[in-house]
Give the backbone structure.
Amino acid sequence: MKKTFSKKQKAPKKPLTIEQKITRRNFLSFGTFIVAGSVAYGGWKWLYNSPEEARTVTAGARAPLRRALNKTELAFRRIFSNNNLVKTYPKNMAAKAVRHNSDIGSEGKIDIDAWKLQVKKHTGEVLHISLEDIKALPKTDIVYDFKCVEGWDQISHWGGVKFSDFINHFKLNAETELQYVGLATPDKEYYVGIDMPSAMHPQTLLAYEVNEKPLPPKHGAPLRLIIPVKYGIKNLKRIGTMSFSDTRPPDYWAEQGYDYYSGL
Ligand SMILES: Nc1nc2c(c(=O)[nH]1)N[C@H]1C(S)=C(S)[C@@H](COP(=O)(O)O)O[C@H]1N2
Ligand SMILES: [Mo]
């Protein structure tokens, strides 16, 4: 059947000429540019004028940015549970010359025989634990890719006691009901806060060895944290004190604006 057009219906439009097409495209792209540009500018102005969060354990970021970051943290904490292990490597892949980074709070001499780890219990009681006491616990080794936020990483080999073994041995289970662990150097110059699930992760160590030898001072003698689920900044060297809390403990780099969670 032949198609016919009733008088009321319009005949198909004449195709646009090249010039008309160009004008139309110019109009559309310029329009899009103006609209997208205004949205971006408006968004930026909104962020710029939004209140700065109160400086507490984190540096003063724009409140909406911090809210977004905290939401992302929650999502990550749900996805990366304790069941996920960080990739490990055979011993022979570990670096022989282990990289050394900053030494805030872990510079200068340390008398290892006099050193004691101070653990502040939630009852107010303080435990004083020697390196010998810690070495008496079962030893765990890990070879993994250590990552620093400054952009380097290195497969390295650490040995020590699992954080969770330490907790069980010293009967600190009630403390692990709290949300955070705080660690600081003996002089309190460097300090970190760790969320409890990451501290209790099966690969987190209180390490006293690197490449099967006692930690040298530059790597945090006599005891350091090795927490493979976090960036290097959280791996505190030369631990002096350990405490537990439901509020975020002070954290050296978070105060400078780095991510508090610093997870991998
Ligand atoms: N006490 C103390 N611990 C610290 C630091 C520090 O400056 N002082 N720097 C951290 C950072 S940023 C990194 S990358 C690692 C580096 O550890 P390493 O020197 O054994 O390689 O230690 C972390 N622990
Ligand atoms: Mo680092």
Notes: The longest helix spans residues 18-49. The mean pLDDT is 90.
